[in-house]
Amino acid sequence: MKRAVYVMAAMSIVSVTHAVALQAAPPGRGTAGGGGTESPTLKALYPGIKPVLSMDQLKALKIENTTIDSVTQNNGSIQVTATVTHAPENDKVKVWIGLPANWNGRFEGTGGGGWMGGSAFGINGPVSQGFAAGATDTGHTTFDGSFGLGADGKPAWQLIKDCAYQGIHDMTVVGKALTTAYYGKPPKYSYFVGFSQGGRQALSEVQRFPDDYEGVVSGCPAINWQQFIISDLWPQVAMNAAKDRMPAAKLRAATQAFITACDEVDGVKDGLVEDPSRCTCDLKALVGTQVGGSEFTATDAEVLQKIWDGPRGKDGKFLWYGLSKGADLTALGGAQPFSISMDWIKYYLVKDRSWDIAKLTPDEFEKLFHQSVQDWAEIFGTDHPDLTKFRDHGGKVLITHGQADQLIPTEGSIDYYKRVMEKMGGRDKTMEFARLFLIPGAGHGFGGIGDGGLSAVIKWVEKGTAPEKLINGTQSGGKTRTRPLFPYPALARYKGTGSTDDAANFESYLPKQ
Questions:
Q1: ∠ CA 317-321-323 to the nearest 5 degrees?
Q2: Which tens digit of pLDDT belongs to each residue from 251-281?
């Protein structure tokens, strides 16, 4: 089920200015392991099905709260552009639905990145593989978070709700309605695929609208939004408080020191740390050395440790997780503060467009952190662990997260999955419908899991075959390395013989907790 990587607007993972960070590159349809390595061939679920409506009839279709703006044809496929409104509000949620000439009987919803809900480009890849597909701007077209603050200085509640959860649901409802009307049959199965913001949208669907999708892929999800998005400014706070603005060379040196110290904990020296939580690194060993033309100081070591530990209150109490050890610290610890976090404070917390990060002392940070949790957990949080309705609907969700994510702490996804396991009856019961796969060494994005895990979810939903492993492939120096990924908390262990670049030479084991 190979698919070329499809392009979405502003798809850089981390731009120099961080203007569109949190945008994970959407996956192509390559190989993935749902207990194997090759993607399954998707047979048509309604063999020989043909459209039952003309383009004019589709344009005239009536859907509640929805206006069909245009119906166009491209290479035999149909693209419908529609606008959803929520009376009496004057919001406009733009929706794009693709209807392929050779429909495979499935619907696929797609997510966005950064502040973007998604884009029309997002449907191209799925449509080329026979999926009816949907995307949406979730009610705004800005690349920043300014849409959330009205001209009167008050929250623009409907636009906020559209972005947080309503827009994706609207796209799903409209997409399924158009698909059913056009082909005369409803989708037999519906899937959602999203990474970063899209990963948050994926879990929003699972939690808020559990009947929308049978299968969901949530990659590097921006859940725990109310905690992590403000915590992404913690490196800036820690450095400013210590009056220690470190150059990029020192930040990179700390990351490399951790990788060097912990590389062989899994028994293989390969530049990958299988489980960062099982190893520590004392940065004091760098003190006195020359790094990037300046001396690495005791203050540098102390500040970097604080960045790794994550934000703490003035009483030392844990607030949230720090950046993943082994991740690129320059992404959030560089000269420019993270723009999405800056937007969060400006437009959603202090509601002051001129707010300056120079005001952000540790005490002020702690105050704003608690405000973020109190005011926004139920709207943006997307971290509710009770997935009973989704499970009972027959839904399956696959979550992936890179162990070296430079924007969203991997520990946040682990924390969420642990709470799901606790709520849903333990590991074995949870794994019947929800699995988490961690990707050693992978930064923000979907890693090298071919199609990001969609084929594994399709096999799980349609054939009842749960993904016992995924295969992660990376390229380095013209050489391909494959490694198996096992459902959390299982890890991959080298068998002791054969190439360490071949997934076949690793096995699953459960570390002692």
A1: 135
A2: 999 999 999 999 988 888 888 898 898 898 9
Nearest to 322 by CA among 222, 409, 197: 409
Residue 11, token pair as written in the block: 């798809």
CA distance 130 to 121: 16
Q: Provide the annotated active-site residues.
A: 196, 405, 444
Q: How far apart are CA 438 and CA 474, in angstroms?
A: 15
Name the token pair of 220: 């590097």
Interior angle at CA 422, CA 416 and CA 425, nearest 5: 130
Instruction: List the structure tokens of 138.
Output: 């979730």
Q: How far is CA 246 from CA 187, 289, 362, 454, in A?
A: 54, 14, 18, 41
Instruction: Find, among 137, 115, 13, 167, the residue nearest to 347 by Cα.
Output: 115
User: Coil, strand, or helix at residue 307?
Assistant: helix
Q: How far apart are CA 341 and CA 360, in angstroms?
A: 12
Is the pTM of the predicted complex or chain greater than 0.70?
yes
In 3D space, the residue among 87, 186, 205 whose CA is nearest the CA of residue 136 turns out to be: 205
Q: Are 148 and 160 in contact (CB under 8 A)?
A: yes
Task: Write the pLDDT tens digit of every residue in 394-447.
Answer: 999 999 999 999 999 999 999 999 999 999 999 999 999 999 999 999 999 866
